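tokens incoming
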């Protein structure tokens, strides 16, 4: 899970601070982005999204049971 605050240029600074603190408490990556101020989706955010997708896909792959015919190969 990632926390991404969009429209950070118009966000209430105090609410943005609370959101950042919440993400930190939960040990979640936090990104603030804004097209207006130029704080766009950074390379770090892109890689973070890729990492989350990769981990999710790996979690969906179930191991082959030991007593399966496929386990012999």
């Amino acid at each position: 899970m990632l926390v991404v605050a969009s429209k950070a240029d118009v966000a209430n600074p105090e609410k943005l601070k609370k959101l950042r603190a919440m993400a930190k408490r939960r040990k979640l990556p936090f990104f603030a982005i804004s097209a207006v101020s130029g704080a766009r989706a950074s390379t770090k955010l892109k890689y973070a999204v890729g990492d989350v997708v990769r981990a999710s896909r790996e979690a969906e792959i179930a191991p082959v049971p030991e007593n399966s015919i496929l386990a012999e190969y």
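note: The first helix runs from residue 13 to 25.
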